[in-house]
Design goal:
Length: 233
């Protein structure tokens, strides 16, 4: 199976591994967005006892937040150093999470229809074929299961803030973290969900103020946005 991965993006995240859990480091935006992302999921699903998969889990920020809600969490990523950071942080948090170096496509072949909930946050814009990730997630979901996605819209506003502003002006992210051509319009993501036989339930904006470090769900979808979809029962 040809890996659905951008080697440059993978190397970028590997370089951030040791500082992933620093709330004031290069991953500060992920720390700030995490409560809003978790809240979006929890508004729609009772997580206690659910089998949850975090695709593109990175250093485990969202995985740990999900596990803290008594979910049975598996996190997958293709960056070994980042996964090691996630595993090491479990000694500090005391949570139990299964971390695997797997692609979504490979895991779908191993564990079809095994998960009640799947999250894939801030990851689709970093892979060559995001539709293949959506299809794999559909295969991994149990009937009636939920898929939650977040990504960046391909708009001039997103370019101005996520690339020009965050990477070059404010230097919140390393240069080259994002590529504008890989940003995904909501209509394109909706098309991928339909092709995977998933029902689109919601599209919501994800607002972030880097100066106050406040994040909230709602408002316009021109920059970051969240999507909830469901597999028919």
């Amino acid at each position: 199976m040809q890996p659905n991965v951008d080697p440059a993006a993978l190397a970028q995240f590997e370089r951030l591994a040791a500082r992933w859990w620093d709330p004031d480091g290069e991953s500060r935006a992920l720390h700030d967005l995490n409560p809003a992302r978790l809240g979006y999921v929890m508004e729609r699903v009772e997580l206690r006892g659910k089998a949850v998969l975090d695709v593109g889990c990175g250093g485990g920020l969202l995985s740990e937040a999900l596990a803290a809600q008594s979910a049975k969490v598996t996190g997958i990523d293709l960056a070994p150093a980042v996964l090691e950071t996630a595993r090491l942080h479990l000694y500090e948090s005391g949570l139990q999470i299964e971390y695997l170096e797997r692609s979504a496509e490979a895991l779908a072949a191993e564990r079809p229809q095994q998960f009640d909930v799947i999250t894939c946050m801030e990851m689709l814009e970093h892979v060559p074929d995001p539709a293949a990730i959506v299809e794999a997630c559909a295969d991994l979901l149990k009937p009636g299961g939920w898929l939650f996605l977040s990504t960046l819209n391909r708009t001039p506003q997103a370019f101005a803030l996520a690339i020009a502003g965050a990477e070059y002006v404010m230097r919140l992210l390393p240069k080259g973290t994002h590529r504008y051509a890989q940003f995904i319009r909501p209509s394109e993501l909706a098309s991928a969900l339909r092709a995977a036989a998933l029902q689109l339930e919601d599209v919501s904006g994800l607002q972030y103020n880097p100066f106050t470090r406040a994040a909230r769900v709602g408002g316009q979808t021109g920059i970051n946005y969240l999507v909830a979809a469901r597999k028919p029962s």
